[in-house]
Amino acid sequence: MDASPPSRLAGHALVEALVAQGIDTAFGVPGESFLAALDGFHEHRSRIRFVACRQEGGAAFMADAQGKLTGRPGICFVTRGPGASNAAVGLHTAFQDSTPMVLFIGQVASDQRDREAFQEVDYRQMFGPGTLGFAKWVAEIQGADRVPEYVARAFRTALQGRPGPVVLVLPEDMLVTPTSAVVLPRVEPAVAWPAPGALRELRERLLSARRPFAIVGGSGWDASACEAFQRFAENWKLPVGCAFRSQDLFDNRHANYAGDVGIGINPKLAARLAEADLVIAVGARLGEMTTSGYTLLEAPRPTQALVHVHAGAEELGRVYAADLVLQASMAAAGKALEALAAPPELPWAAWTDAAHADYEANLVGAPVEPLDMAEVVKTIDRLVPSDAIFTNGAGNFSGWLHRYHRYAALHQAGRTQLAPTSGAMGYGVPAAVAAALLHPGRTVVNLAGDGDFLMTGQELATATAHGAGRGAGRLVSIVVDNGSYGTIRMHQEREFPGRVSGSDLVNPDFAALARAYGWRAATVAATAGFEPAFREALGASEPTLLHLNLAADVITSRTTLGAIRRSAEQRIAARSR
Length: 577
Ligand SMILES: Cc1ncc(C[n+]2csc(CCOP(=O)(O)OP(=O)(O)O)c2C)c(N)n1
Fold this sequence. Notes:
alpha/beta
């Protein structure tokens, strides 16, 4: 038995418990509701740092990025009602992305509960698992002596099965109560292995397939799992597509890579997937964005035979009536799949080669003047180290990154893509700041829209305050300014052509704004100006914002607003004839 530590405040024990779980960084915005926990961070400051952010939405996005980068739960501390409300966006993002996270929320003292005391909210109602959108588990720590128990369970719940966020509520009086409770050891999630019978059946299905296709996605991957999955794909010469915003789970330069199965999918890839006779989805939830609104794989019963491999039993059969389900953690899935013996000749070799050729061909787009976003992304790709981390929030601008950037795989470089499958605007800046703080030696590039950027742009101040982007690595945020909530404008032009409503933006001078936060900055209006500006950013020892002016008409990497409007007008005219 461990000897009991001397009595200390529960807030201190809480921070000790985080250290025991291997956490060295927590993000948050302070509140008077958890002063004793903040004091715990002070007490243990040589082992764990508290990164104070400028808005809880930014802090929660940073914790999500931490969860994605480390594979351990990201940690976020916020105060009662207002703080928790702001943090909700990060919680929702972590839920949809299956990112392990623990959000700690300060709560009113126990003897004030249920009076609608100052900032009081019932978080079990607000975020409870019943909402199916915010948290896997919401609990209030019931007494100082039980801090270790709740923290360990929170970590296990966040990591095990389908990973996700957990909320732990901290009554103020609990945090200031002394306790001698011993913290519990580091939690390692249970590993689920696929059943041998199911693996045999998967092999038989592969042997009788003619046009198989593998989709990799979701969370819970580590380097060895990714490597093992790659060997499985090589052994069986499978074309591999990455689920929406999971593009770093497979080497984008690999001969089996077929492209990303997400928004703005390569039409040839969509056609190939529709033609496949067997889809093997590993780790992906197969959400709306990956399935093009449940059409590429028709819900609930796809036309293709479907093998679904997922760590969470509750995900298997939830949307798709798959032909075969395998419940497995990604590490175990990788090992089991790579051990499946493949025949020497596979009838679909040409199909896989063609899939990769389609991907390569999709890297070439029509040139655009004066600013060609494809060239911008390719320039970045050429100049940054292969382990550079790319972050983005939501908006059409991200389509250029997803189409033209060739992500390195997790097993080659660690995670290189931080992007919200929830489509949360504002994710990219905080994720980039978190990545730069957690990996000071790696280069971090954020691509943001003008709308997207200003949702959380205040976190440039957090970067400055905590020295992000001042190590060996570089931190660059690129704002694609088209004076518009362009994505919404695009949908408007398609549905209500010519009737712009609520989607025009009047922007600040982004370069001046960045300088005010202590960043370097430059504005680029034409393709030729980008490379020198980006090279300068890579040479600088401070973070840099590059402000790019893009005509609103250049709405995606495939079409223009004008073309969308014209085809909508023709459609409407044809209907009224
Ligand atoms: C937090 C949040 N609010 C609203 C939306 C709806 N939405 C999706 S894309 C978009 C516009 C994005 O604009 P911008 O960042 O300028 O990028 P663009 O589409 O112009 O490239 C909006 C408002 C969202 N996804 N997330």
